[in-house]
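Board notes (copied after class):
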Amino acid sequence: MRYLCLPGAYGSAKNFQVQLGPFCQELSSDGNTSFFFTQGEIECTPPPGFLDYFGPPPHYRFVDYDGVGKNDVLERIRDFPEGENVEDVMNELLPDGHVGVQLKVRNSINAIYRTIEEHGPFNGICAYSEGTVVAATFILEEQRRFEEEEIPRNIKAAVFFAGWPPIKLHGKDMLVLADTCEELIDIPTCHVVGAGDPYLKGAVALYNVCDENTAILFDHGKGHTLPRNAKTLKELAAVIRQMVPEDDETNERA
């Protein structure tokens, strides 16, 4: 497998490569896996007090949420809403009607297509936090283009760290959620979550719109972070290798 890797908000390709390094080293130890790191196109500044957490500048985001509703969505996440189920929470976080968000996410999807054209091919995608929004949306857009235009798909498997649900690029609903949308991510997916993550419901919402027959939930027991424990990474790598379709176990470039 050759994975395209997308960092979270305030990340960068360089910093994400360091943060994800132990995972990449473990998964690629079989000689059948490689990684390429990209980043968002919107330069940004981390919130005060978080510079050490996100690593040295420059920092980037895939989606500029500024001006959406009364607050930046990333600011609203700090006061994470409550709800009876994960879908209620997601709708409270990002209500329908924000056409601007759909346009901005579409720009990110187009950037991913350009990255694939320039640096591909890739048959897997690996993403963290905000990057999972773009990755999951991209997978659904590939599905749509294949079904409607017979354009071949690139991504055959996905690894989501601390995930969030995809954005609906077409139609009225803003988020792709299990209780309102029929769309389903139909490729094998591994959802790496932390039981202590205050935003766990976001990851569950993403898991709920993936094919239950090929979606795997892996709990590393920590928070909204990337796993780094050697034993945990070895177990995770074994799970992902079993998930990957046999005919896609390659890291060769076309």
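Comment from the instructor: Confidence is low (pLDDT under 50) at residues 67-71, 249-254. The longest helix spans residues 99-119.
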